[in-house]
Design a protein that fits this description.
The protein is of the alpha+beta class and 94 residues long. 20% of the residues lie in helices and 26% in strands. The protein contains one helix and four strands; from the N terminus they run βββαβ. A four-stranded mixed sheet has the order 3-2-1-4, covered by helices on one side. It is flat.
């Protein structure tokens, strides 16, 4: 992920509870930081993905004159192993 890109990730920390997160890399030697995330669980992977894409679109609209269209360049598959993810990610409660 380059510092100009935003990555959309979907996680399922509890079976049936899906969360989206937008991540941005500040520098190559640091973990990406969450710049937006689901406030609560969504019922399916596709619902979480669609909500994350909508958040990405809103972000792009805010940064442009309305003509910009974001391109989702990557996502994390729900079957991926999140056991080694960086502390303080989706599982942190505010």
């Amino acid at each position: 992920m380059s510092h100009d890109n935003i990555e959309l990730m979907v996680d399922e920390p509890i079976p049936g509870h899906y969360y989206w997160m937008l991540l941005k890399e500040e520098s190559p030697d640091q973990y990406p930081r969450a710049i937006a995330y689901a406030e609560g669980p969504l019922p399916s992977y596709s619902a979480a993905m669609m909500a994350g894409i909508a958040a990405l679109q809103r972000r792009a609209d805010e940064r442009s004159d309305g003509n910009g269209v974001p391109v989702v360049t990557s996502f994390v598959d729900r079957r991926a192993d999140f056991g080694h993810s960086h502390p303080g990610g989706l599982h942190r409660h505010h």
